[in-house]
Amino acid sequence: MTEQANHSREGQSPPVPGAKHDLLTLATRSGRWAAVICFAIAGLCLGCVAPSSATPSPQLVEQPEIQALACLKSGIRYPHNPAVRVEAIEAMESAGDSEVLPWIRSALLDEHPAVRFAACITVGNARDHTAAAAIEKCARDENASVRVAALYARHRLGRTDYTGRIVTYLLQHDDPMVRRNAAFVLGLIGEPGAVSVLARAVKDDVEPGVRHHALEAMARLGNAEARQELTFMTNSGVGSDEVMAVQALAATRDPRFAETFRYKLGTATHLETKLAAARALGMVGEEDGYDIAVRGLTEEHAPVNDQNDPPAGQELRVKLLAAAALGAIGRTDALGVLAEKMQRDTDPRVQIAAARAILEIAGKRAGLSPFAAAGQALGTRP
User: What pTM did the predictor assign?
Assistant: First the structure.
């Protein structure tokens, strides 16, 4: 990632549809691309690859996954905005390749709690026993959400002695952000017995974000009532609620929701809902949303008039959702558009999102994990 003089400022930004309104949101929704927008975007420096008028080499044109891999390596070290580092970690997590684990382990020591949170979740998902000592340190972190993520990682590494504390964080912690993160983690653990605890949060918690994340966790655990409630929310008419609900149902990867996703793709009044539906359809093997995803990434769109949601933030969310949809759909004819955004977009988060989508498509094409596909292209794998 190139170093530029005009660094981004880590300030407040408009709420993200379907996301917790805090930077720790960045690390709490598996496969949740639109949740990576919690900073002001004015003045962001250039990202993974500086725009250039030079013609890309034939190798990069034919194998953009090589450049995508380099982009993510740079992203996890990007010093000016922790949102970029979190996005890079999430992209590496989706790769499912052990070669990325050393980079993710280093993020356990990052100065920002959102990055440490993301690294804990990813290390836990990978069951990376090499990181056990660093995880124990995170379990004593000053930030409660990082401690929740560390409890999840410990559980995945076979240390279940303190896993029950996650329930305490969900039901008793004063900070709603911590309660949201605890709900998310309980969904990841995958214990059906957690449904009753999550149901208490849905019923009793006054903070909407906590209820939404508890519903999503219950849906992941197969709870029919939660899935029904989320299906109802896809038609709420409130853009943020619709995106959240579509993303939550998509995370179940249940093809029975394909008709719901097709309906939202065709009828939603909010572009972000349509793009979330396009990605959800891609996740269940359908390409219906391809054209709208390409347009979302490449065309200008009239913003919604909302004084609490500046046009720049809306544009960024649309681009991230569009890139996510193209990656989920997996068509190789999207590689050119994604490579262009990865190389030339002026926002590093868009560059990271495009790189992630490129690797996802490359992995599907080769029948490999995305990083294995990139390694093969570089000649480092048989």
Answer: 0.81
